[in-house]
Amino acid sequence: SGRGRRPALNASTGALELRVPLTILVCTDIIQQDDEGGSGRVAWETAKQLASVGHKVIVLTKGAPGRRYFEKSEGVEIYRYRTNPLNLFKAMREIKARHGRIDALDLHHPYTGLLARLAAPEVPCVYSFHSPWGEEFATRGAGLGYSRPRIWLGAWLRKKIEKAAISGCGVVFNASRFMAEKLKASHALESRIEPLGVDVRKFTPAADRDAVRKRLGVAADRPLVFTVRNLVDRMGLENLIEAAGTVVKKNSKALFVIGGRGYLREKLEALISSAGLEENVRLEGFIPDSELQYYYQCADLFVLPTAALEGFGLVTLEALACGTPVLATPVAANLEVLGGFKKEMLLKGASGAEIAEGVLNFFEKDKRGVAELRAECRKFVEENYSWEKYAGIMETVLYEISKGAP
What interhelical angle do 177-187 and 148-166 show, nearest 10? Predict the structure, then answer.
């Protein structure tokens, strides 16, 4: 191929090998620069890490309004094809013309993944399974008031597309046992479970939390509870607002900040208004990735009120990396991630009353105990989660499926 070899550590064997850098196409519906969603961060962080060790990495994604069709960022080329399949095929032609051979596809979502496979059927691929697309649609459709036939047909079609995108991939990755079982139940496919990572240089405790609070317009004396979620039904945000009402009766200064956007916003605004919580609950909307760490840093507590389908919970790791304790419902992968840290940080249940009980109990902790807990949160992430480690495993697998290893 004419490409120079470089030393690389095989993440599976621990052996040092000489390897030819690969040309890798990461195919994803979203990346964190364009939209919320942990799956988009996984796709981007994997791409960024692979590029940092010498691979030629291209990201192909749907993009978002106002974003450029092509750009380079942190050593990665980004092509945004804007949903239309014909635009994706055009982008693929440009990528092939510019780079020649593509060694491997790293797929993250059924829609973009299947189209990319159709456009490059000769290229071996891996798939990262983040959630069952059909089940996600059914939950969202019910929240939007879709008819039962529309929900059934939409879920069935998405399940078929997802199966076609995944079948034949060299390896399927899952971040949790919970989601691995979902994949098996949906498509009778096995997967490799590899925990995700976190950028501990970006998500780090603040040197001056009061200064960060001032930046975000939060008074230093207000107990701050933060969460960031897509505003959709399965996230349990209605229960969090109910919990806020109970907490505020005991502590009138308590402030709940909810980041994210989605179809539930109007309903959540109505709940906040009807409960008279306008001074205590803020819907912050979309929080740019460049600002997200500041919200984690200045929060006293992060709450993950998930009702269903939590595939891993990257936000849990990001909050912990910032030294911010996390309370989470005992749902799905929360049991694996937070349960592996401190089981007492798992709430008794997902109801508003149970969330409120957990928050109020946390507020009663003494300052010394909280300071020690914040240090433990940071240490837990540093010792257990790394994007470098995750990308190293991905790199080894990509070599194996592309037969690019020596």
Answer: 100
